[in-house]
């Protein structure tokens, strides 16, 4: 396959639909609630955008040279995106992730040819990050360490694409943006872009309400290593979401809106709905459907009536 053809998978990333959540918004008359369907990206999550930007930046800078292994920490979604891109570009990929990551995510990563190193589940994503950084430091000539939590290309991807898409898809009428924090790249990049378009837009960060939560891929910032790319000056307010509320909204999105998504998407919509209850008519809230529900089919929360 020609090298040019290998990059075609990257051309499929972005320009995702903006879905109006009419069933859920029926509880808040006069308020419009929208969500970016990021699960329609080729590897199935919002993380395709950051992975693309990081890999292209590595290639341009020469840090990702031919034969080097892409090595990073992940809770799953960025790892799947790196594995997809690594397979297309013929770069080996090694990913450090907590042992309790969903089995579906692990199978996807391995199916794409990447190697997994499991880390202590009690240390969560922090343990995976520290282990990956140590491995990269031990053999810097053989690997490219994207360091997604501290790589400016992560947030820049959303500044250059996601934020612009939201602005255009809402016909410049978005009033509030809501996004849960993981690496914080989505929130930081989109918030920075939207505030540049219109400083009056309110940008709200979402976090789990406890260090001991079950919302995969997200961070309770007070109890974890803070990502270097998080720009707290962009946070107009923080919304806390319980694991139970995130799970309940995830089930509701499937059954009431026909959107089969993961629990971080449920957390985002739960937070957006809570915000909507405090706003006057005319508000237009946009949030993110981070990934698809197929990578959580073994999760027990689907079984609750």
Task: Please characterize this protein's 3D structure.
Helices cover 41% and strands 16% of the residues. The chain is built from eleven helices and ten strands. The termini are far apart. The model has no long low-confidence stretch (mean pLDDT 94). The strands form two sheets. It has a six-stranded mixed sheet. By secondary structure, it is an alpha/beta fold. It is globular, with a radius of gyration of 18 Å.
Secondary structure: elements and pairs:
Elements: H1 3-6, H2 8-11, E1 18-20, H3 22-25, E2 32-37, H4 47-61, E3 69-73, H5 77-89, E4 93-98, H6 103-111, E5 115-119, H7 124-138, E6 143-144, H8 152-169, E7 176-180, H9 185-197, E8 202-208, E9 237-241, H10 243-257, H11 263-276, E10 284-289
Parallel strand pairs: 2-10, 3-4, 3-6, 4-5, 7-8, 7-10, 8-9
Antiparallel strand pairs: 1-2
Q: Nearest-angstrom radius of gyration?
A: 18 Å
CATH topology of the largest domain: Rossmann fold
| Coarse structural class | alpha/beta
The overall pLDDT average reads: 94
Distance between the termini: 49 Å
Largest sheet: 6 strands, mixed
Give descriptors for this structure:
305 residues; alpha/beta; Rossmann fold; six-stranded mixed β-sheet; four-stranded parallel β-sheet; 10 strands
Task: Give a short synopsis of this structure.
The protein has 305 residues and is α/β, with parallel strands linked by helices. Helix content is 41%, strand content 16%.
């Amino acid at each position: 396959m020609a090298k040019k053809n290998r990059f075609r998978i990257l051309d499929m990333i972005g320009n995702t639909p903006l879905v109006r959540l009419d069933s859920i918004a029926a509880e808040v008359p006069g308020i419009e609630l929208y969500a970016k369907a990021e699960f329609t990206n080729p590897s199935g999550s919002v993380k395709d955008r950051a992975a693309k930007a990081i890999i292209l930046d590595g290639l341009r800078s020469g840090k990702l040279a031919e034969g080097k292994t892409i090595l990073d920490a992940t809770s799953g979604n960025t790892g799947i995106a790196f594995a997809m891109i690594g397979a297309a570009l013929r770069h080996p990929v090694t990913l450090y992730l907590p042992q309790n990551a969903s089995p579906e995510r692990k199978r996807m990563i391995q199916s794409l040819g990447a190697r997994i190193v499991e880390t202590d589940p009690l240390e969560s994503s922090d343990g995976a990050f520290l282990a990956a950084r140590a491995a990269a430091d031990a053999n810097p000539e053989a690997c490219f360490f994207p360091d997604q939590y501290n790589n400016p290309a992560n947030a820049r991807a959303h500044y250059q694409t996601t934020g612009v898409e939201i602005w255009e898809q809402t016909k410049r009428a978005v009033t509030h943006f809501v996004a849960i924090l993981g690496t914080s790249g989505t929130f930081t990049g989109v918030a920075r872009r939207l505030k540049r378009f219109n400083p009056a837009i309110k940008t709200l960060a979402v976090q789990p309400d406890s260090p001991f939560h079950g919302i995969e891929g997200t961070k309770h910032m007070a109890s974890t290593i803070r990502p270097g790319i998080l720009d707290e000056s962009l946070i107009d307010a923080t919304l806390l979401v319980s694991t139970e509320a995130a799970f309940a909204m995830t089930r509701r999105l499937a059954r009431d809106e026909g959107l089969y998504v993961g629990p971080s998407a449920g957390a985002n919509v739960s937070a957006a709905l809570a915000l909507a209850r405090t706003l006057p008519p005319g508000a237009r809230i946009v949030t993110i459907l981070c990934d698809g529900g197929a990578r959580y089919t073994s999760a027990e929360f689907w079984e609750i009536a």
